Amino acid sequence: MKRTFSALIILFALSLPLLTLSGCLLGTSDPVEFYTLSPIPQTAGRTGPAPGTLIAVLPVALPTVIDRPQIVTRADDNRIQLADSHYWGGTLGDNFTRVLVANLGSLLAAKQVNVLSDAHAPDAAYRLSVVVGQFDGRLADMVRLNASWTIKEPKSQKTMAVGNSVVQEPVTGGGYGDLVAAKSRAIATLSREIAAEFEKLR
Question: Are strands 114-117 and 79-88 parallel, antiparallel or unpaired?
Fold first, then answer.
C-alpha cells in the first residue's frame, strides 16, 4: 500500500510540469477574430428604381477550397494555409454576394437601377450569375480574383453579356485586416466592370 502511494506521488510530480506547460500554452493562445468584406461607399440621395430596371444577383459560386470558416491564404502555387484564429463573420460566399449587390446598387444608382439578391427579386429584368475561379492571396503581397460572369434576361433566357474579370490588388500590410481590405477592393473592381456592362444594356 505504501509502495503504491509513493508511486502515485512520483507520477503526480512528473506530470505537474506538463500540466503547467499545457496551461501556459492554452493561456497564451490568440483570441479568435472575425472579418467581413466591405462595399464601396453608397451613393447618397438615390431615388427609387424605374420600372423594368430590377437586377437580381444570384449567390456567388466559390471554389470549396476557399469557401471555409477560416480565412485562407496561399503559401505557394500548390499549397494553402488556414488561419488559426482569423475567421469570416458568416460565410465567404454570403459576404461576397452581399458586397457585390451593394456595390452594383451604388454604381448604378444614377441609372435608376435597383439591385437585389436573387431571393428578393423574382421579377427582375436581368439576372447576374458570377462564378469565381480564384480569390486568394498572401499577407503583405497580393490578392488575386478571377471571376466569370453572365447577364441573362430571365423571361427569354437570352444571354445579354458575358465576361471574365482578372483582378490583382496589392495587400498594403501584413495583417489579416489588410488582406480582407484588399479582397474588398478586388470585388469593387469586379463590380465596376460588371456595372459598365449593365450600362450598355440601358
Answer: unpaired
